Each structure stands twice: as structure tokens, then as C-alpha cells.
TrEMBL record:
InterPro entries per record: Aminoglycoside_PTrfase, Kinase-like_dom_sf, Methylthioribose_kinase
Organism: Rubrimonas cliftonensis
Top-rank taxon, per record: Bacteria
Domain Aminoglycoside phosphotransferase, first and last residues per copy: 36-291
Major enzyme class: transferase
Gene Ontology terms, MF aspect: ATP binding; S-methyl-5-thioribose kinase activity
Keyword annotations of the record: ATP-binding, Kinase, Nucleotide-binding, Transferase
Record-level GO BP terms: methionine biosynthetic process
Entries under Pfam families matching the protein: APH
Protein name: S-methyl-5-thioribose kinase
UniProt keyword Ion transport present: no
Entry-linked NCBIfam families: MTRK (TIGR01767)
Family annotation (Gene3D superfamilies): 3.90.1200.10, Phosphorylase Kinase, domain 1 (3.30.200.20)
Amino acid sequence: MTTQGYAALTLETLPSRLGEVAAARARLGEPAAWRAREVGDGNLNLVFIVEGPEGAVVVKQALPYVRLVGESWPLPLSRSFFEHEALVRQAARDPGAAPEVFHFDREQALIVMEFLDRHVILRRAMIEGRRIAGLGRRLGLFCARTLFRGSDLSMLAADRKADLALFAGNAALCDITENLVFSDPYRDAPMNRHTPGLDALAARLRGDMAMKRVAQHMKWAFATQAETLLHGDLHTGSVMVSDDDIRVIDPEFATYGPMGFDVGMLVANFLMAFCAQPGHASDPGARDAYADWLLEETAAIWSAFVGEFTRLWRTERAGMLYEARLFEAQGCGLGAEQARLERLAAIWRDALGFCGVEMHRRILGLAHNADFETIADEAARAACEARALEIGRVLALSRDAAPDMAAALETAREIA
Ligand code: ADP
Ligand code: MG
Ligand code: MG
Ligand code: MG
């Protein structure tokens, strides 16, 4: 990995180093008057909010290592390149979903982008019990548009293959997912941790051969089924919300993979927010209505996904797959509709598996969720996490039976 010429920004050096960048200057005004603060709360990168006399921007810069762990865990700066490439594609495929990019510097691994000033991280909103109108629907639309339009259902085959080759360079980030999501939770890995009180459950899951097989089938799917360009890290910490706007940030894990991955990870994070609600309740039951709302929004993710995927299938199916010349042009639109339903069933089946694995790794692996971490009472936290572990297991193991979303949520409600 070459880091020649690269230097991490500091609060002190930022105005002089970005002062000459026309795109930043145009939005902020005179660099001498810029004020920067570092707000990165993620696991990997530096994020600065820079305010000037005329406006504000966000500057996100990769570090040559994993921020959460430190310099002992190197990670290529090129993830910033892939994040930028993914942001550009998402903006084209689902206009308005991603923050606008103003400037990208490959050597410095930095992106200057729109400051979402009215927005908060969705995970925080869910911890506070805040409802966001149209939340699940908007995220379902995002998934359908980006996943459909990044696939062979829509793209020219040669373009998609070139893009697949490009994103194959993001291997180091895939490696994190491959190990931390699909394998480490199911073994006694050095960086794992879990809440005291979960020892027995962790041991049981690590001895659960059926669950481990599903986890490895999902890893197989993630690593080999290059269906479309994924966001790759679509949890509730990668969504920012205001009262009237919903955005998706942080696609540095972008890679070609199975459509069910983004959908399943998102659903998992909604279900974990649901499981955490009793731990945030001031009085017993105080969050019940909010927990119900979370399940309604979880259902809305999938119904919006199905609706939009269907619309795109019928109106934008311009790629080499399921060609109209085989179906509609032969007077057999029904065949295309049946094929669509079969594809959706396969995506949902994958999503159930990815959902379960994501719920496990956030509780037993390295990277935990604030939904649970902010529950100060350890016994209460362990109780919430235990329910999430079980929901994840049941959903992952149910994927062959493929319960529909309503049945999956009924399972979640029963276990919780
Ligand atoms: P990481 O890759 O390290 O997880 P993120 O892109 O998730 O970094 O950003 C970390 C945090 O910085 C987010 O949780 C959010 O609070 C803030 N942030 C990131 N991008 C923006 C933005 N465009 N506008 C406002 N805040 C942002
Ligand atoms: Mg992040
Ligand atoms: Mg976070
Ligand atoms: Mg990130």
C-alpha cells in the first residue's frame, strides 16, 4: 500500500491544505475564517465538519489503518476511492439519496461532500424513539433502485463487467466483512466481545452446526454472487435523517455481491433497534408503541423494495437478463412476471440469511451497535441482546422455508 504524499488532516492543517481547493473555497468562503471540528464516530475514518463565512462542508478522509483498532491494523487508503465511485453511482441510480460530492482527492484519500446539517444518524434517532415519516419506504426504494440499476438487469453487460473488475480492487474491505461478519462470531476470535451474561448463548451458537452452515452459505453468496453493486455497509449508522429527508452515507464497503445483502443487513439493524427498545424505556412499556412502529417500518422496507423492483423490472429491464424478446415480445408477459417473482423470492431468501448473521455479529463480534451499547444496565442489555441472537438464528435457519416478511416479523414479535 503506498501512502506516499499522503498526510492525515488535522484541525490545524485543514484550512491551509484545503484552502486552495476551489470546490471547498467556493462553498465556504475565505479559508482564514474556516472553523473545523472532527465528528467521526465511525469505526474507520476521519470526518470533519468545516464551516466558513459562506457555508459548510464535510471532509471525510481515510486513515491508513482501522480507526477503531489503531495502527496495528492497516487498511488501504483506496477505500476512499471506492467510496467516491459508489457515491457517484448511487447519485445517478437514486438521485437525492447520497450526499452530493464536491471534490475528491485520490492521493489524500479524501472526499469533500455536502454537510447534512439538519440530519442525525438514524441509529441515534431510533435510540431516542424518534419517528421518521416514510423511513422504511424510502430505504426500500434506495435498495431497489441502486441494486436493480447496478445489475445485469439494467446495465450493458460489458459496462457491468468493467465495473465488477474495478470494484474487485476493494478486496481489503470485503475481507473485513468476510471475516468479521460471517466467521468470527461463530468462533472464539480474539477481537470478539460480548455482554456478560451471554456466555452460554455465545457458546451455544458457536456449537450450532446448522447455524454455522447457513453462515458459511451466506459467506459463499457474498463472496461469489456478483449480482450488483452493493452499498456493503447498509446499517442504521449509514443512514442520516431529518424531519423531511433521508440520506444514505458511507458506501466504502461497496462491492459486487448478492442483492439480499444490503436488504438483509438493513432489516437486521431495524430488528436490533426493535429488540433494544425495552432497554431504552423509562417505564416498562413506554417504548411499546415505538417498537411496533419499528416493525411497521421494517415491513415497509421490503414492500417498497418489491414495488420498486417490480416497476423497474417492467419499465427498465434493458440488460441481457430475462430479455423482453423471450417474454413480452412473444406475447408471454406472464413468463417475465413469474421470473420476477422467482428472483424476488431468491433475494428474500438471501436477505433472511444475511439478516440473521448480521444480528449475531453485532452482539458477539468486534463491532457492536449503539442500540445495545447505550443500555447501561448490563442485565437489561443482555436480555435485549439474547432476544436478538435468537431472532437472528430463527430467521437465518428459516430461509429454506422462506416465511414472508409478515411471518418473519411475527417470529420477531414472539421471541421478543
Ligand atoms: P466511517 O466510515 O468512519 O463510519 P461515516 O461516513 O459513517 O464514517 O461518518 C462518520 C460520522 O460522521 C457519521 O456517523 C455522521 O455523524 C458524520 N457524517 C458523515 N458524513 C456526513 C455528512 N455528509 N453530513 C453530516 N455528517 C456526516
Ligand atoms: Mg460509518
Ligand atoms: Mg456507528
Ligand atoms: Mg464507513
